[in-house]
């Protein structure tokens, strides 16, 4: 009876872990979709301003690498909480840089 209970508890923990991993994958997909939309808008602005394209391309490559790191951290069942938090912090910082970059482009285009 005790072994059966422990087995059921282990199975429940596995289900919870799978549900969390699925939620993390959905969150990552939403984040990627949002970033892709922002990338498209920034690419459009970069084309309009011309000179910003190289800088934008470099930032985009860094952002894509960070998204891969975040996706890997969220999908890896053995990933530590610390690694996931670090990846999320890096992506958050890139979002801040994109916002500043976008504001700079808007200011430059309004001159």
How would you characterize the overall build of this protein?
- The model has no long low-confidence stretch (mean pLDDT 78).
- By secondary structure, the chain is an all-alpha fold.
- It is rod-shaped.
- The termini are far apart.
- The protein contains three helices and no strands.
- Helices cover 91% and strands 0% of the residues.
- Keywords: Coiled coil.
Report a brief summary of the structure.
By secondary structure, this protein is an all-alpha fold. Helices cover 91% and strands 0% of the residues.
Overall helicity? over 70%
Distance between the termini: 77 Å
Main sheet: strands, sense, barrel: none
Q: Look at the helices and sheets and give the structural class.
A: mainly alpha
DSSP E strands, number: 0
Q: Nearest-angstrom radius of gyration?
A: 20 Å
- Helix tally? 3
Structurally, the number of domains stands at 1
Unreliable stretches, pLDDT < 50, 5 or more residues?
none
List the helices and strands in order: HHH
Based on Cα principal axes, name the global outline: rod-shaped
Mean pLDDT: 78
């Amino acid at each position: 009876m005790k072994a059966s209970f422990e087995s059921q508890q282990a199975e429940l923990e596995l289900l919870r872990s799978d549900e969390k991993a699925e939620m993390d994958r959905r969150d990552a997909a939403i984040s990627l979709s949002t970033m892709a939309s922002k990338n498209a808008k920034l690419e459009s602005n970069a084309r309009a301003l011309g000179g910003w394209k190289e800088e934008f391309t470099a930032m985009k490559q860094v952002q894509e690498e960070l998204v891969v790191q975040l996706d890997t951290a969220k999908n890896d069942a053995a990933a530590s909480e610390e690694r996931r938090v670090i990846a999320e912090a890096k992506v958050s910082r890139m979002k801040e840089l994109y916002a500043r970059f976008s504001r700079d482009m808007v200011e430059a285009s309004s001159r």
